Amino acid sequence: MKKKVISLISVILISILIFSSSCQAVMFQNPPNIKSPSAILIDASSGKVLYEKNAHQKLEPASLVKIMTLLVAFESVEKGKANFNDEVRVSERAWKTGGSQVFLGPGEVQTLETLLKCIVISSANDASVAVAEHIGGSVEGFVRMMNDKAKELGLQNTNFTNPHGLPDPNLYTTAFDMAIVAKELIKYQKFFDWSTKLVDYLEHTDKKREPTMLANTNKLIGKYDGLDGIKTGYHEKAGFCFVGSAKRGDMRLISVVMNAPSSNDRFEDTKKLLDYGFGFYNSVSVAKKGATVKRLKVDKGIEKEVEIIYKEDKSFLVEKGKENEISTKIILPEKIVAPVRKGQKVGTLKIYQNDVEIGEVDLLAKQDVRKIGYLDILKTLINRLF
Q1: pTM for this structure?
Q2: Is 123 a residue of the active site?
Q3: 45 is a catalytic site residue
Q4: Is 63 annotated in the active site?
Q5: Which of 126, 173, 121, 124 is nearest to 147 (CA)?
Q6: Residue 9 has pLDDT above 70, yes or no
Q7: Which of 75, 123, 246, 343 is the most exposed place for a label (fewest CB within 10 A)?
Q8: pLDDT tens-digit profile of 64-87?
Q9: Where are the alpha helices (DSSP H) in the chain?
């Protein structure tokens, strides 16, 4: 009996040691060994940098340029300056664009939506020029829009000279800057409707022509858990580039590798970066857009209360095991005076890490509450009487 007890205690102690070692392995995980000369890994929600290697080195990006091309196009649609249903006539300039293409014919008419799909799935240079001419009035006009957006995002080491990424000594960016552009692009869900397609087809205006197959250049789609974008790039000087994005639960990461020695290396480096991020960090969600915070009393309103909601999603990345470092505090008045407008800011959610403020979320009124009038008071009195 004594031997069995000693044996049991030994098993328990060994199990504790193994568990402790595995926890330490997670907590002190070494950064990944990346072959690419330049790389970065960020949290898509906060922009927090989790890993970087020469992330601010200026390099030619090849087709990574199209991430900005797509962002400018999506924003133009969002602002009403363009429409996905717009008919775009392919110019001779677009037709003659070299490199990766979907073989658009001169004079061929396609919708803006179809051309964007061709860029996302097949990295089409001809479609990129057609989109640029439609939205910017000319390629040069569109490139100015691209550079204006870069300045707006605070990118200090980026200069665009074309919308497709073919070689140009004055075209350059960095892994860090590309991560920031990608962070903006992924706000548009429609992008993911196309980026996750392995194969699609382009129907040409000339029905005598066979449809062009659109094959996704992202070879990690369906092969890495949660990966759903974003963009490959290659030419001899730029080397092999890739901006990746993967989401698991509430946590989305963006990786960038540039000037990798081979196509396989860019994808292997991407997997190493994402494995590191998902293995070492956890996302703590503190707010869900539209979710109810509480009900707030309304003074002099036709309604006695108004529902208060979060303005946006908000989450923060922390090392695994340190999730309890994140705390929140709701700041709201005891009551609010009517009239109340839908979407009106009425309070703030303060977010802290180890008691240090790291962010906030606006708290909004979910619906209108008009101020009570004389007729409302009279109606109430009559209802009470009868």
Answers
A1: 0.84
A2: yes
A3: no
A4: yes
A5: 173
A6: no
A7: 343
A8: 999 999 999 999 999 999 999 999
A9: 2-27, 65-78, 92-95, 112-122, 125-136, 139-152, 175-185, 189-195, 263-280, 374-385
